[in-house]
Amino acid sequence: MKTKYRFLCLFLLCALAGTGCGSRAAGYTATDIAMGTVVNQTVYTRKESVTEDVEAIIDALEQDTLSWRIAGSEIAQINEAAGTGAVEVPQELNEDLIILMDVAEKSGGAFDFTIGPVVRLWKIDEWASGKKEAENIADGEELAEAVIPAKEEIELALAATGYEKVSMENGSISLPPQCSLDLGAVGKGIACDRIAAYLEKEEVQGAVISVGGSILTYGSKPDGSAWQVGIVDPQDTAGLIGTLSLTGQWFISTSGDYERYVEVEGRRYHHILDPANGYPAESGVHSVTILCKSGILSDALSTACFVLGVEEGMKLAQNYGAEALFIDEQGEIFMTEGMKGIFKETGRD
Ligand code: AMP
Ligand code: MG
To answer: Is the backbone of residue 197 left (phi > 0), alpha (psi -120 to 50) or beta?
Structure first.
């Protein structure tokens, strides 16, 4: 009886300390540029810091797997083989491509991983505002001037695209001539998936890591409080429209028309294209935030839901059991039921 009582006291003390019975986890923070975007990390661990390993994971994912620009990457090899028949896909990438094909189908092509030629035509990465932050370009330094492509050029580029032209079977993929894969919409979410697996392997206690618009919360804080994830106010991007309060492992991705855009003659041209016409999507939405248990899914859904708009996007998110928060062009907020219990608007108790 006495021994049992002692164990109970010890357990209670440990639980109150919120740190388990070992030494308290130390906190590490790091901010870097990877995958062309800003990576912020806060990690709590009783072992050595893993922040450098996390950066290396993102770099390797981009260089060895995702980049269509880097000859020899897994995606570049698939694109290289377009028109030559089926090629085998490494298992991890194949699992990701199966998820992406499913989102492409269920979103009716609003998410389309073959949209690359149209994205490149718009040269969004050369002129868009977000480039400055991501690549440390000094204020005052000029970006390339935006040139809006001609309708005929867009139609030509669009003709080579279409997820339904891709065939995937038994771990192999085949693309018709001129067709290519571009995972620009989901690279950051995939990075969060890979990072979560690594944190688990390294027995990290807790972390919140953002890779551009995709965020991973993992484990717990030493003080036991919830992770607070800010949602940018799309009408005033220096501020937050609210926060998500989360415990444990979650993936959050936001797609917004304020991330990469240029304004020409009063019209905003942003980086999320409607595959139906090849122009920046005009769905009445400023931003979409998706919360779910998978990084790749949250990232694919945020892009798809942006293109679909509030009504159709809401249905798609619910179809996947994901929570969604839309902010429309008037600044009105629309949320799934589950999101309502997680989101707190700035200035409201
Ligand atoms: P995100 O910010 O996650 O919504 O991703 C946007 C990026 O995905 C763009 O910069 C393009 O590279 C690519 N993209 C744009 N529109 C689409 C689309 N409809 N489907 C798939 N990828 C897209
Ligand atoms: Mg996305």
So the answer is: alpha
pLDDT digits (tens, 9 = 90+) for 62-117: 999 999 999 999 999 999 999 999 999 999 999 999 999 999 999 999 999 999 99
pLDDT single digits (tens) 39-52: 999 999 999 999 99
Q: In this model, does residue 173 exceed pLDDT 70?
A: yes
CB within 8 A of 176, min separation 6: which ones?
A: 82, 83, 165
Q: For a substitution probing ligand 1, which of 99, 115, 183, 279 has the most ligand atoms within 8 Å of its CB?
A: 115
Q: Residue 290 forms beta bridges with which residues?
A: 253, 324
Ligand nearest to the Cα of 287, by number: 1
Which residue type, as a one-letter code, is found at position 262? V
Which two structure tokens, joined as six digits, stand for 116?
Answer: 């690359």
Instruction: Give the strand order in the sheet containing 172-174.
Output: 87-88, 172-174, 167-169
Question: Which residues are bridge partners to 267 per DSSP?
Answer: 264
Q: Is residue 8 scored above 90 in pLDDT?
A: no
> Closest by alpha carbon to 51, among 61, 60, 41?
41
Question: What is the Cα–Cα distance from 191 to 197, expressed in whole angstroms?
Answer: 10
- In this predicted structure, what is the pLDDT of residue 3? 38
Closest C-alpha residue for ligand 1 atom 8: 185
pLDDT, greater one: 114 or 3: 114
Q: Which of 303, 307, 326 to mutate to test the pocket of ligand 1 (most atoms within 8 A of CB)?
A: 303
